[in-house]
Amino acid sequence: MTPAAALDAVIADVHSHPVDVGPGGFFTALRHIDLLSHLALRFAGDAHYHLDSAHETGCAWHPVEALTNAAVPLSRAQYHYAQAMVPLATLSKPNPDTSTAARLHDIEHHCALRMHLHAAAHSLDEARSTLRTPTPTRLPSPAAPPPVTTSEKTTSRRAH
Length: 160
Prior knowledge:
- The chain is mainly α.
- The protein contains 5 helices and no strands.
- The model has no long low-confidence stretch (mean pLDDT 80).
């Protein structure tokens, strides 16, 4: 599976299993964090593989740059899911208090939860577009001159 296909599969799974208030929502958020963690690990591993190949064969750096650039918004999505855990845990507790103050407090947590989940979804969309947008190919840097050996230093000194 290509990195883009893996990201699309994770995004499809996140969309088909929304995070709702309650114990099930808490589990779902943890599951999303787990999927994003595995995907970030895969991107890092693939980037490392391509980096080794780029050094050995001089092939294009595009896969390395694409994977590492896509890992940034993936990490941001993980961060937002982690931030969503606080209001999610608070809203998941049974609360017999039905006062106006308690309801307003719950609204604040609902807003924070939705804000973090929306930001996570936005970060996943950013990762998708980052992964699919081709990065400009860079020309290899000119090779450094070969190091001067001791015998060459001695020969050049004698010439002067």
